[in-house]
Amino acid sequence: MNHERIAELRALEADCYGVCFYMLQEEKSALQAAQAALADLYRDGEFWRLQVQERERQLFRVAVSRALKQCGQ
């Protein structure tokens, strides 16, 4: 199960980083925000119950949230 989750998150990794980089315009901050977002999603049991399209929307929401938090640091 964990290997499946990791594989699915790896498939979303570039999109997550892209959202974070678009918002932050700085590589290091975007990387930190994307890593935090992916870790949040990994631990979110509800995320894994969603359909694929809903997971993509949730990824966007979490990436935006983490990028905004990164701005405040």
From TrEMBL:
<protein>
    <submittedName>
        <fullName>Uncharacterized protein</fullName>
    </submittedName>
</protein>
